[in-house]
Amino acid sequence: MRQVTITFERDDDSWWVASAKELAGCHSQGRSISQARQRFLEALGLFVDQPDKVTLVEDIRLPASARRVVDASARAKADADEAARRAQTSTVEAARLLSRDLAMSVRDVSELLGLSHQRVQQLLRPTRMRGQPPR
User: Fold this and answer.
1) Among 4, 50, 106, 121, which is most exposed with the fewest C-beta within 10 angstroms?
2) What is the phi-psi region of residue 21: left when phi exceeds 0, alpha when psi lies from -120 to 50, beta otherwise?
3) pLDDT in tens, 101-120
C-alpha cells in the first residue's frame, strides 16, 4: 500500500492549499481544510490508479504559536478523556460495592453517586463480550 503525505498550508488569501510532494502536480485548494481535503481526494484519482489503496498522512502547517495552542488543546482533551474513563470505572466500582456488598437500593446508590436511578441500573448490568447475544 502506498503512503502519501498531504500538506495543508494557508495562502495569502486565507485559502487552504493541499499538495503532495510524492505526486508532482497533484494539489487542490478550498476555503476550509475539509473542502481542500475533499478536493484533493478528487484530484488524487487523476494521479493514481487505485486512490482507495493509498494511505494518506496529513500535515497541517500552522504558525508556531498556533501549533502550540492546538497541541496543548489536544493534550488537554486527551487528559480529560482519560480522567472521564477513570471516573467511569470508579463510578461502576462504587455502584457495585454499594449495591451488592452493602445491599443498598438502586435509589440510594443513585442519590449517593449523584446519578439517576436509571443510570445506576445501567451501570449494574453485567457486561457482555462483543458479539455475544443478550441474556
Assistant:
1) 50
2) alpha
3) 999 999 999 999 999 999 99
Q: Which amino acid, one-letter code, is at 32?
A: S
Joined together, the cell numbers standing for residue 70 give 492546538
Cell of 92: 461502576
CB atoms within 10 A of CB 54: 19
Looking at the DSSP assignment, which residues form a beta bridge with residue 67? Answer: none
pLDDT, tens only, 55-66:
999 999 999 999
Q: What's the grid cell of residue 102?
A: 452493602
The DSSP letter of residue 10 is E
DSSP 46-98: HH-S-GGGEEEEEEE---HHHHHHHHHHHHHHHHHHHHHHHHHHHHHHHHHII
